Amino acid sequence: MNNKFKLCKKIFSLILVIALVLTTSVIVPTPNVSASNKSFGVFLGIGPENMDRLNGYKTVVIDAEYFSKSDIKKLHKKGHIVYSYINFGSLEDFRPYYSTYSAYMLKAYPNWPEEHYMDVSNTSWQNFIAGTLAKSYAKKGVDGFFVDNTDVYSEYPQKSMYKGLLRMYKKLNKTGKKIMVNGGVDFVSKALKNDNLSKYIDSVIQESVFTEYNFDTGTSSKSSKSQRKEYKKYLALCKEYGLSCYLLEYMAKGKNLKAIKKYCKKNGFTYYNSASIELE
Question: Which CATH superfamily is domain 36-201 in?
Answer without folding.
Answer: Aldolase class I (3.20.20.70)
